Amino acid sequence: MNKQLNKIAILPGDGIGPEVVAQGVKVLKAVMQKFSLNIELNEGLIGAIAIDETGEPFPAQTQQLCEEADAILLGAIGHPKYDNDPTLTVRPEQGLLKMRKELGLYANIRPIRLFPALSKLSVIKEELLEGVDFVIYRELTGGIYFGKKTRTKDYAVDECSYHRYEIERIAKLAFEESMHRNRELCLIDKANVLDSSRLWREVVGEMGKAYPEVNVSYLYVDNAAMQIVLNPRQFDVVLCSNMFGDIISDESSVLVGSLGLLPSSSKGDGAYLYEPIHGSYPQAAGKDIANPIATILSVEMMLRDFGHVEAANVIQNGVNYCIENGLWTSDLGGKKRCSEIGDAIVGYISELAVLSL
Ligand code: IPM
Ligand code: MG
Questions:
Q1: Are the C-beta atoms of 44 and 65 separated by less than 8 Å?
Q2: Is 340 in the pocket of ligand 1 (CB under 6 A)?
Q3: Is 251 in the pocket of ligand 1 (CB under 6 A)?
């Protein structure tokens, strides 16, 4: 990639967002110092906090900040006061959907990588987990999420539509990724029922001819949901439409043992977005108990994407160091606080004594 990482928009958002993002930024600043990286960081509002302050979940000012940035680091979005009232017309999640659409973030990339030291935490049997390492490519700006909507009192419609070009652009990224991995690409769809899925199969099948080294397979989403827990090792690159990817990625996160460990990136035409896959976890907000690793690994993904491989590696090693040495937050069965994990990784990066923690 030729893009340069000069400006990052920092969007802490709601719930535990601000505290996990604070750790991500702390770690980012530590590598910036260590590797003499000169990156401008600018903070903006999104989600419930943005509604409170501006009336909008993705204010124009935040959009501008994102458009001027090369990358965005997002915490989480959502507040319980919106959850049980379907009549509310302005909701925090709209901020996320608007950001994806406005910034053209059509590909959401969610790696599912296990930490062997934590395999006991998963509800899945340990022997099924060894060697699990796959990545989900979820289409993010089309399908049922953005289709035509109709609503009367007793009738509601959410249309699922896809254009060929929307499938081609994400499939291209997925094929390219599989060339760097085990050359296995699995399209998850419902082509036995849905026309939109049949188009996905057609397009992906045709594109596969340009990647003869890649073995393309297809699974119906119901079967795939079962296969992910029965035999997760079979997957390498998984490609899905928006809604199926949403569901499959939460399911896959269970393999890893905690949602607090999984980063993600979203790519498209402009700035790339990096965020933990967990939500705003309001019950833990402000308590300094959330796991910041998903956010710290999102910073790692960002640096790697922009070619700062050494900086990314040192973060990854710092995370591994914490996990292997039992520096765990409560979701992993440990006693460390969110900020202590950030401090430990910063200590690792700066080569200070961290064992005392
Ligand atoms: C996700 C989330 C979002 C989605 C919600 C918060 C709108 O579940 O990023 O997976 O459905 O895309
Ligand atoms: Mg989801």
A1: yes
A2: no
A3: no
